[in-house]
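Hi V.,

You were right to ask for the full record rather than a summary. Here it is.
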Amino acid sequence: MFEFGQFQVVSYFLNRAIIFSFSIFYLATTYAANKNTMEYVKFCNPTGECRNFSRLVMGTDHLSQSAWVNDNQLEPKKEDVFAVLDEAARFGINLFDTSPIYVGGVENTLGEWRETRRSLILKDSFYINRKLNPDRDIYALSKGGFPFDLFWLKELPAGCHSIELINELKKQGILSPNATDWVSQSLPLQNVPPGSYASHLYCNKEIMIDRISHELKYTRKNLNCDIDVYLMHRDDGDAIGFTKVKREQTPVENILDAISAPEVSNQIFMLGWSNWETHRVNKSLELANQSDNYIRPMINSPYFSLFEMSERTIHALGVQVTHVEMSDPNFQKGIKIMPYSPLGGFSILDKPVDQWQNAKKAAHKKYLANDAYWKNVYHSIFTEENEKRWNRAIQFTKDFNKVHKTKYTIDQVLNAYVLAHPRTDMLAIGPITVEQLRRTIGALKLSKKFTSQDLEHLYSGQVAPSFSSVKALCLSAPKNVDKSYIE
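Predicted structure:
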């Protein structure tokens, strides 16, 4: 306990004011520079052509989806989707994440929006800050290499498939036990469970090139022939009912060789992976470093969130990275990491308070109804450990706001948690309204205030948040002493 005389009070706070002043000056100048602005990550391809991509990447997966937040939610009108995209661009986001399999034909909608905004984005007056989007361009990230979705197809498409998949389909009574000629003809399937997939990348080079080129054809049409980043969305693998079929994967070298062929590589600016395991990512980098014949992968997009997936991933063949891995500056060194998380569309956070319990209840209802998506997400996300993390995040948000006299929201804290990790180069976000988008952009500023101690507290609860000592200082100081410098 301190006994404060007049001199001691002045001396006590003067010493701390000197210490805090350096921190405050640094933070003030940093935050002033970043206030309402976007951060950018520079990418250069082997020919030396460079682009500055926004650190926040606007995901479009749920942007045109109905019944996402609740069963009565209507599919948004095109002008409403355009309004969200406009706001993202106004705040400096210039990379938009889409896919030909996303709901509502949103890849085509994105292409239409891009075309109508090409002249508008050149004007300083369009942006909230004229220094935003230094390239004055709108870039598109799309995906290919999708496995065949057997649940929706109700058939096994003609082509090469692993014998392990064939045997498992027969064993479970999904494919006729007498089926033989699956290479030359499509075969009917029955009682296919959700989460059942046949790999697009289990085949020889020529077939891989043909399959990927076929996907590229539609994406190029949707995006007006302009693809800046192209991710192989899920590695080689088969699954039945969200369970991965055990077999050897196609060698990374074979896949990289096919994608490096001019028929594919000449149609994209940059290659990346989505849901690839670390050892496969590292192998691709090793191969690209060894030979100029291979296109170098530049971005990896795994699942990463405060809410870790259980042994069941949120979708079949999903791959996550962990808190410990993303805290290591050398993790997957040589490639930019752009995580995605279950905050896409804010389906958890848009539920009434208590959001966790109500979101879990809604997910369980869809699980019981055999919803193809939520049947798996329910077991993947709503775990006991994730509920503890949610409760810590709620309390952390309250305490942080009290100490710093701020008004950050829980979704901003969850996004800032991901952004604050050393290996998070970019983050795919999923707001579906203008208001959500603005909050998400605010998470960039918040992430600068997080320490490794804060991240560990949110993840494991094994340490106290770093601002607890500052809070204690505030509370212990005499009431008549100015404490404003602490903020």
